[in-house]
Structures are given as C-alpha cells and as structure tokens.
Amino acid sequence: MKNNSPSVNGYILAGGKSSRMGEDKGLILFNEKPMITNVIEQLKPAVQKIIIVSNNKAYEQFGLEVISDLITDIGPAGGILTALSHSDANYNFICSCDMPFIKTEAINFLIEHSFDFDITVAVHQEKIQPLFGMYSISCLPEWKNQIQKNNFKLQELISHFNLQKLEMKTMNSFDEAIFTNVNSKSELQQIQQKGK
C-alpha cells in the first residue's frame, strides 16, 4: 500500500456457528488449515492491520485482535457496524471468513479503485458481493441509522450510500474462484475433491 493512500484496515467477519456446517466456518479445516487462515494470509499485505469480528474467543489463536459484535443476531450488517464503530482507519476492507480462494491481488485491485466512494463492492456475473468490499468510516452514522430502522439486508443497506459496483473481470488475471463461499460440508468436500 502506498504511503500517500488513505489508511485501510481489514476486518474479517467470522459470525459464529453455521446452521448447515454445525460449527464456526472459519475454524473448519480446509487443506489441513482453518479456513480463515488463507483469508488472513492474503489480506495481510493489503491492509495496515487485521481485526476479526467474532464472539468466539477461539479466533484469538491467530494472534489478531478479536472484537465481539455490538449487536448480535442481525447477520453481517451487525458485523459491519461493529467494524466501522471500532475502526481508526479512513477505509475498511471487509470480507467473510469462508473465502478460501481469496487473493491479495484482488483485494488490492478493489482497494485501489475505492477511494472516491463511500462503499465499493465487487461484482461478478452481475452478482454483488457486499462481503468483498471497502467501507468508508464516514458510513457509520447512516449505517447505524439504517440498523435502528431494522434494515439488516446488505443489498438494501449499501444502496443508501455513494456506492460503486466494481466489475472484477476488468482485473488482469482475475480468477472467479475467489468468490467461492463454503456453506455446507458437502460443498467443502466437493471443493477439496476438485483439488483447488
């Protein structure tokens, strides 16, 4: 990251037990390592510091700051609220813990194209990826306001801001696998069997 760029923190949302997985997705072994491990490794070169948003103290094993959700049971909207409330950076790259193929190059690409907007989210095959996005600290007051109105749907929430939808296929050497989420144990087995 260039010295004259705005400050950027990285927040990984590790929201708790998945009903379909039966345990915390970020701690499930993928290629013999907890799934969150690759997210941490790929995020580290792109941001000033990494914070994990989770109520599970087991994430402290990775040697990073772990903060608990300010509001529980409202999904990733609460995780983003927690990240923005905690952050001391101008911008915050926010992603999920269950993206085993995330790449530093893709993170940097999105960060470099983000600074003129409140929120920049990745788009691939016309699908918006709010949990692969940059969120300005200036979003916090309105984000709080929307949550107070019980607006917890990310697609709706982000529409209230100066939003950029960044088409990732314009990036050189883009690999669509970076947006692979693991939502069930059968999906995990399928992905591992493919040898990715």
Task: Sum up the structure in keywords.
196 residues; alpha/beta; Spore Coat Polysaccharide Biosynthesis Protein SpsA, Chain A; two-stranded antiparallel ribbon; 7-stranded mixed β-sheet; globular
Please describe the topology of this protein.
Elements: E1 8-13, E2 29-30, E3 33-34, H1 36-43, E4 50-53, E5 65-67, H2 76-86, E6 91-96, H3 104-112, E7 119-124, E8 127-136, H4 140-148, H5 154-158, E9 163-167, H6 185-193
Parallel strand pairs: 1-4, 1-6, 4-5, 7-9
Antiparallel strand pairs: 2-3, 6-8, 7-8
Helix pairs in contact: 2-4
What does this structure look like?
The protein is an alpha/beta fold and 196 residues long. The protein has one domain: Spore Coat Polysaccharide Biosynthesis Protein SpsA, Chain A, CATH 3.90.550.10. It contains 6 helices and 9 strands. It has helices at residues 36-43, 76-86, 104-112, 140-148, 154-158, 185-193, and strands at 8-13, 29-30, 33-34, 50-53, 65-67, 91-96, 119-124, 127-136, 163-167. The strands form 2 sheets. It has a 7-stranded mixed β-sheet, with helices on both faces. The chain has a two-stranded antiparallel ribbon with strand order 2-3. Helix 2 (76-86) runs antiparallel to helix 4. The chain is globular. The two termini are 28 Å apart. The relative contact order is 0.18. The model has no long low-confidence stretch (mean pLDDT 90).
